[in-house]
Design a protein that fits this description.
mainly alpha; 2 domains; 21 helices; 0% strand
């Protein structure tokens, strides 16, 4: 079950919301959400509900043990075992065949692939569960004595499949006490509709064009560049749309979920880009991987050697390279068990590292209008080339696209036909949709118009129009899953 399906819109969500508002007390409300969260997950793949339950039990048990007054070494053993179980399960289901394929290629063996279906949302609920254990281990947050509260945190249906990844420290107070009035519910529903419009009306519309372009046999420079730009648009509105829908649903139940996107395509450099794109994942890697790596004893000893030899300033720059390489390698792997994802992560990490050590000086360029323009162009180019790796089904297809982008200057009639079919009516449609989206988001805009008395009613009129367009799109088009559900 996904948010943009008829069964969710007309059955699951209304029933869940009605029961939630009827039952008294926070414990009963949490119980309703937990039951329906498990039902929501079971609709995706019933066979993997026990895996989710196992993750909940393992991490809750680890949290209880970490709450005991034990020596540091024993507490470290508990958190290590919990992490091994969490990452081991994710590795088994997500990376086993990738490991087998590369082992066969390296050693010439013929181990058959296991073809284990990937549990929905395993990358997201695994990181959510790890956040709980790590926060309790660091004593930044108290453990949950209640198994059911931990279960709801890990399995909460708005976030379990594709985030945002909510840290335990952020979620814990909201699981105990939260309020939801009519105004917050209205804002949540409006946010949900905006997200659904981003997915159904923009991402899916552009996605059909992108599929045709990437599958075109007569590939040339026009199709390759349009395919890359189109996919950059598709993945933003697909994933940002999901995040808007999740945040909106959370608001209707009183939760304040973290933002996941902040106009990433206006970024001034790749470091800035990752402060705006998939913000909850960036925060997770920074808090639980990058900073602990920086503080490890081997890296601190290495820093002292470099500081004595090259000076502190140079040592500071060099010491971030190893943690950054690890983080970006794992960021790529987290997105998918394929070499194109690994290279995509390293591609982004390479430019973040250049900025981190000062070889690309974004701070200097930010001071002038022309400099900001240069930074945006540079960021767009890096992101655009990365999207080809991300979208391509293989390294061979990615190489074919790159070759066409720079050498495909012989235009065929077949390519021209694909191009005409791809762009016909798309620009006018997106322009009209952009105007409607502007009306819906008007009350949140930082302009004088946002304070006008007619801004709020007009936004709901626009919201109704968007909802109608979304329902028509659902009726006319085939189902297209959210891109990040595959991770």
């Amino acid at each position: 079950m996904v948010f943009s399906s008829a069964i969710f819109l007309f059955a699951f969500f209304p029933v869940t919301f009605a029961l939630y508002r009827v039952v008294p007390g926070m414990k009963a409300k949490n119980a309703v959400l937990l039951v329906f969260s498990l039902v929501f997950y079971a609709f995706g793949r019933l066979a993997y509900v026990p895996l989710l339950v196992l993750s909940i039990l393992v991490n809750w048990s680890a949290g209880r043990l970490l709450g005991l007054d034990w020596p540091k070494a024993r507490r470290r053993l508990v958190v290590t075992l919990a992490a091994v179980v969490d990452l081991g399960l994710m590795g088994l289901f997500k990376y086993l065949d990738f490991f087998i394929a590369n082992l066969n290629a390296l050693l010439g063996t013929a181990i058959p692939a296991q073809n284990i279906p990937l549990p929905l949302g395993i990358s997201f609920f695994t990181f959510t569960a790890l956040s709980y254990v790590l926060e309790v281990y660091r004593k930044r947050a108290n453990m949950a004595k209640s198994l059911w509260r931990t279960a709801l945190y890990i399995a909460l249906f708005p976030t379990i499949l594709s985030g945002p990844i909510v840290g335990w420290k952020t979620a814990a107070p909201q699981l105990e006490q939260r309020t939801c009035d009519a105004e917050k519910t209205a804002r949540g529903l409006r946010r949900f509709v905006v997200g659904m419009a981003k997915k159904l009306l923009i991402a899916d519309t552009v996605g059909r064009m992108v599929d045709a372009l990437f599958a075109a046999e007569a590939m040339d420079a026009r199709l390759a560049w349009l395919g890359a730009v189109g996919y950059a648009v598709q993945i933003l509105f697909d994933f940002a749309g999901y995040s808007d829908m999740a945040i909106g649903i959370g608001m209707t139940f009183g939760f304040a979920l973290p933002e996941n996107f902040d106009r990433p395509y206006t970024s001034l450099g790749m470091t800035d880009f990752w402060k705006r794109w998939h913000m909850s994942l960036t925060a997770w890697f920074r808090n639980y991987l990058y900073m602990p790596l920086v503080m490890t004893k081997p890296l601190r000893r290495l820093y002292k050697k470099w500081a004595a030899r090259y000076g502190r300033s140079t040592a500071n720059k060099l010491s971030i390279l190893i943690p950054m390489a690890v983080v970006w390698l794992l960021t790529g792997l987290w997105h998918g068990a394929a070499w194109n994802y690994v290279l995509w992560g390293l591609w982004h990490g390479f430019f973040c590292a250049l900025e981190g050590v000062g070889l690309i000086r974004t701070k200097n360029l930010e001071k002038s209008g022309f400099g900001r323009l240069v930074l945006r162009a540079y960021t767009a180019a890096v992101v655009l080339f990365g999207t080809v790796l991300f979208r391509a089904g293989s390294l061979a297809q990615a190489g074919r696209m790159y070759a066409a982008m720079f050498t495909g200057w012989r235009f065929s009639a077949a390519g021209t036909l694909v191009l005409q079919r791809s762009v016909t009516g798309l620009a006018a449609f997106c322009l009209a949709l952009g105007l409607v989206l502007s009306l819906v988001r008007l009350p949140n805009a930082e302009t004088k118009l946002a304070d006008a008395k007619w801004a709020q009613p007009l936004s709901y009129v626009g919201c109704g129009a968007l909802l109608a367009l979304c329902l028509m799109s659902m009726a006319q088009s085939g189902f297209q899953p959210f891109i990040y559900l595959q991770f």
